[in-house]
């Protein structure tokens, strides 16, 4: 008999984090482009972020037609992604800047680092967007899933940090509640998964 799964978070009922979901009315739309393999991952935080943010959309795709991507991108969009050497140099969105104030949409790629790089290679339009990046030593609370890239955050942690910088009058810290609950439930039910 198959396990019962929550229809909202798509997790087994004993590790459902829905009681910790929050509702955050954000001005800047968050467009999450999720790799198809990430959609099925049990610790997928892109979907979690989309469930918490009022003004958000999640698209599952590895490759989008140029026309389809152009339709999704608002005129004042920025990409949440580190400034890596192989990416073209573009304008950085600084907190409090005129560009940050006029921003309509934040585009986020929800995938492993390898898959996110592939998505960017296939979509030059995304590479040309102004970029939101973080500097300094970043500490992730993602104890149940590890990244192949040092100093990296989960999708939901990255969205929280970016949105807090871009919309400082709103408290985005609350978006981490379901994330923290997911980690606690996983460690409680599966202690060896640490």
Q: How many strand units?
A: 5
Helix and strand content put the structural class at alpha/beta
N-to-C span: 28 Å
Instruction: Please tell me the overall pLDDT.
Output: 88
What overall form do the CA principal axes indicate?
globular
How many helix segments? 8
SSE order, one letter for each helix or strand: EHHEHEHEHHEHH
Rg from alpha-carbon coordinates: 17 Å
Largest sheet, in brief, is: 5 strands, parallel
Percentage of residues in strands: 5-15%
Give the uncertain stretches in residue-range form: none
Helix content: 25-40%
* Sheet with most strands: strand arrangement: 2-1-4-3-5
Describe the protein in words.
The structure is a single chain. With 194 residues, this protein is of the alpha/beta class. It has a domain at 24-82 and 92-135 and 152-180. The protein is built from 8 helices and 5 strands; from the N terminus they run βααβαβαβααβαα. The protein has helices spanning 36-39, 45-52, 66-72, 98-102, 113-122, 124-127, 155-166, 177-189, and strands at residues 29-34, 56-60, 77-80, 105-110, 131-132. A 5-stranded parallel sheet has the order 2-1-4-3-5. Helix 4 links the parallel strand 3 and strand 4 (105-110). The protein starts with 28 loop residues before the first strand and ends in a 5-residue tail after the last helix.
Give the tags.
five-stranded parallel β-sheet; single chain; 5 strands; alpha/beta; 194 residues
Secondary-structure blueprint:
Elements: E1 29-34, H1 36-39, H2 45-52, E2 56-60, H3 66-72, E3 77-80, H4 98-102, E4 105-110, H5 113-122, H6 124-127, E5 131-132, H7 155-166, H8 177-189
Parallel strand pairs: 1-2, 1-4, 3-4, 3-5
């Amino acid at each position: 008999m198959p396990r019962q799964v929550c229809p909202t978070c798509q997790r087994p009922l004993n590790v459902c984090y829905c009681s910790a979901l929050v509702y955050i009315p954000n001005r800047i739309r968050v467009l999450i482009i999720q790799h198809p393999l990430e959609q099925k991952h049990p610790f997928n935080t892109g979907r979690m972020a989309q469930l918490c943010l009022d003004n958000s959309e999640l698209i599952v795709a590895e490759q989008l037609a140029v026309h389809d991507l152009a339709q999704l991108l608002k005129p004042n969009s920025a990409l949440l992604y580190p400034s890596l050497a192989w990416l073209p140099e573009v304008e950085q969105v600084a907190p409090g800047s005129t560009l940050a104030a006029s921003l309509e949409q934040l585009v986020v790629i929800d995938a492993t680092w390898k898959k996110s790089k592939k998505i960017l290679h296939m979509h030059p339009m995304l590479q040309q967007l102004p970029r939101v990046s973080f500097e300094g030593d970043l500490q992730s609370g993602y104890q149940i899933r590890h990244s192949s890239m040092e100093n990296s955050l989960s999708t939901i942690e990255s969205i929280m940090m970016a949105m807090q910088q871009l919309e400082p009058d709103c408290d985005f810290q609350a978006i981490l509640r379901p994330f923290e609950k997911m980690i606690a439930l996983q460690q409680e039910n599966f202690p060896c998964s640490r």
